[in-house]
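Handout, section B. The chain below has 215 residues.
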Amino acid sequence: MEHEVTPNPRYSILVIDDDVVNRNHATETLGKHDLTVVGSYDVAKNLMDTKFDEGQIRSRLLRQGHYYHRDLKPGRSSEPAYWNAYYEAHDQSEIPFPFDVVLTDMMLPMSQEYPTSRLYKAGQLEPLGLILALMAAKRGAKFVALATDINHHDSAMSGGLDELNPLRATTEIYSIDSARVIFTHAPMCQPVTQQQGLVKNWEVLLKMLTTKPEE
């Protein structure tokens, strides 16, 4: 079941794009919302990682007669009752996903936090936005868009998005774990100035996601 669409609400939005022009345009056009704008996969992933409230874990354990041992590791305790209570308290203390909407670029620089190999280099552009979009949908976002400004004639990945939108005149909306999700490319861009060229129309993306479909 998809999340209900509410007319003209104030959303908590995460925008992920390595292009400073696109990031600035998001700030200019989505400023009425609770907006977070980042430029890398690493920062976005850290923001979206599942987090737990240690205070709640501690309180739940105390109510069951256990003290919270922050540095205690499983397997080093002879108290199975403690670990049963801990995992139950842990699962009940997950912090809700902080963003209603996640709008991400497709091609993002390779992570700086993981060791590189001979196959790729840190900073190399890869379609990591697809991973972030699916993470967002799985972790509780209501609306998710993967949007690249690469023309489908210039990239196999961008061209592949056509397969997800068989009716060229419209953008298909998918339901993933109750999130409304779209995958789109250059047609949603708009000209700004001759110097800047095209920029992503974040408002159009948000409207596409949050407009209630006709009955």
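Note. Residues 122 and 164 are 29 Å apart (CA to CA). Compare this with the example in section A.
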